[in-house]
Amino acid sequence: MAKILRKLKIPAIGGGARGRNPDYFIVVIAAAIVLFGLAMLSSASSDLGKIRFGDTYYYLKHQVAYGFSIGAAGFVFGAAIYYRRWQKLAAILLAVNVVFLLAIFLGFGFKAGGAERWLKIGPFLFQPSEMLKLTFMFYLAAWLAASAKRTKSFWEGFLPLIVLAGAIALLLIFQPSTSTVVIILFSGAIVYFLSGAKLRYIAGLFLLGTAGFLSLIFISPYRFERMTAFMNPAADVQGAGFHINQALIAVGSGGLWGTGYGQSTSKFSYLPEPIGDSIFVVIAEELGFIGAAVFTAAVFFLVLRGFLVAWRCREQFGRLLAAGIVSVIAIQTVIHIGANIGVLPLTGVPLPFVSYGGTSLAVFMTALGILVNISKYS
What we know:
- It is a single chain.
- The chain is globular and about 55 Å long.
- The model is unreliable at 1-16 (pLDDT under 50).
- Helix 12 runs antiparallel to helix 13 (358-375).
- Strand 2 and strand 3 (124-126) form a beta hairpin.
- It has one domain.
- It has a 3-stranded antiparallel β-sheet.
- The protein is built from 13 helices and 3 strands, in the order H-H-H-H-E-E-E-H-H-H-H-H-H-H-H-H.
- Helices cover 69% and strands 4% of the residues.
- The protein is mainly alpha-helical.
């Protein structure tokens, strides 16, 4: 068997190339979260679809056609392909993703909502920054797994990592997509820590990241406005504080059990971005504290199970990749929910598996498929 595996260039680890049974807990809870997300998007977008396109289910149909269908194929593909194959493709995938990011600034970008984050190639429209959440984890896990020196050495590990992360961060900031920078770099720091990096390097990453984030706030008027609205939401309820105040009112009106599915009164008339940046507010208003808590618990157990897969994995690349995938999901969920209940500054972060956006849903579902494959060899 070992000779056959060597000829196929597949490492013989754990249970071998065939693996064992996948983690069905991840499969079941992921399916439940995705279906719940489609149901909540249908509710959150019904009025908006009717007004803009004359079709109550316009956004749901679009999400299914360009997000769920591609994501389902990606999940099956990711779950079926031996995860170690991604290790050899990691550098190529990241390079292609960076080319896509650069193409946005070369006349292929599509602008919406004041940000130029979409790449339009023929009839295809997608967000390279969403894809980066997966390709960067591929590369970082493969890069750290290739040499133990990269977790301990300043010149061979810390400095190259800072240069790469800084270059990618600049591309995202110019879109602008500051929230994506925070998600990717925070997740990357967790992966770097779990690889065995020295604590002073981790501290250095957070110090540099904090300094960069604060600098962006002070040199960018709209980011500074968001921060002041977070510090004092009541100061300008019709201006900078409008979004967060409407979100808090809607969350509060949901009470313990909610107003009922489809019965939100704020999703069209008052709440900005009810199908994207504020969809958790619709969940809390319609399903109440109980419904929001059940959803949050489901994501929590998915992340917890993902870290368990990472902990059980006997091989460094799989361990770091699994940790990176669930870190992205966890951090993005925390930022979205925190921003909508007033404990974090308001920012344009979609809720994983729920918010409208085909690229985001497809990427996260594909990432979960890869996590399932890693679980077969844990």
